[in-house]
Amino acid sequence: MARALPPLNALRAFEAAARHGSFVAAADELSVTPAAISHQVKALEERLGVTLFRRLARGLALTAEGDALLPDLRDAFDRMALALDRIGRQSGGRVLTISLVTTFLLAWLVPRLHRFQTKHPDIEVRMTTARHTVDFGREDIDAAVRFAARPEDGLFAMKLFNDVLTPLCGRRYRDRVKTFDDLRKVPLIDTAYLPEWPIWLEAVGLQALKPRRSLAFDSTKIAVEAAIEGAGVALGPPNLFREEIEEGRLFQPFPQVVESGKAWWFVCPATTADRPKIKAFRAWLDEELERDTK
């Protein structure tokens, strides 16, 4: 049987007093009297059988026991606040928070997001960028777009499109990269966290190619922007940089397009996939993907 917890007010009083180092300041924050805070902390100490504070002339100092309790208690309060906020959003909130990879956000989503906003003006989209796996149980995130060979187990997953790679360059190298051998003479730009040039080079039979020098960035979007500015030749999916290619700022010197073995996925908890705001965004993604095929 689980041990009964102390009263929540006593735990909150201790956390506030520990944070401020003062019963007076804690009382002011919690809108009670300093005597009430002192009484609640004393009751908690008696319940636990330990002393949590040393009462000093100019404030409070945590004992070893109080110092050990504080981090876990703060974490518990943070998790409760997050859970309550998440339930509030799920019960009818119209804020849609999405975690994305920078390249997908800037190259694919942002240029067309205005169409979603026009169609669903009542849904406020909030976006954050990250490459780590989202912990939907603890993070304030409704959905994510991730770059992976396969989505994590237990999630609703919608494949957006497979990832493909091909060399891309700006005007500076447009006329200097005509054959595969020319790649030996120019800087090759790659992604630092997951090098992709070896994938393309092996697929076209150039695994032994040694570039003259190379650059690395933490985002494909940044790598391609560097290529546009003349820093070298990058690898990327041409469908994500269609506008730059059509405008004549970016060039695809070779027709060989190689699948990387990964794909772009829209994911969210299976239990929330059909919530109205998430369902609306999924339907809009389908529309945009269909638009890309026309």
Commentary on this structure:
It is a single chain. The protein has 294 residues and is of the alpha/beta class. It has two domains: 8-90, Winged helix-like DNA-binding domain superfamily/Winged helix DNA-binding domain (Arc Repressor Mutant, subunit A); 93-294, D-Maltodextrin-Binding Protein, domain 2 (3-Layer(aba) Sandwich), CATH 3.40.190.290. The chain is built from eleven helices and ten strands. The strands form two sheets. The protein has an eight-stranded mixed sheet, with helices on both faces. A hairpin with a 2-residue loop joins strand 1 (53-56) and strand 2 (59-62). Helix 1 (8-20) packs across helix 4 and helix 2 crosses helix 3. The radius of gyration is 27 Å and the shape is elongated. The model has no long low-confidence stretch (mean pLDDT 88).
Q: What is the general shape?
A: elongated
Low-confidence stretches: none
* Main sheet: strands, sense, barrel: 8 strands, mixed
Q: How many β-strands, per DSSP?
A: 10
Count of discrete alpha- or pi-helical segments spanning 4 or more residues? 11
Along the chain, the helix and strand elements come as HHHEEHEHHEEEHEHEHEHEH
User: What is the overall pLDDT average?
Assistant: 88
Please give the radius of gyration in angstroms: 27 Å
| Order of the strands making up the biggest sheet | 4-3-5-10-6-9-7-8
What is the CA–CA distance across the termini?
A: 62 Å
The CATH C-level name of the largest domain is: Alpha Beta
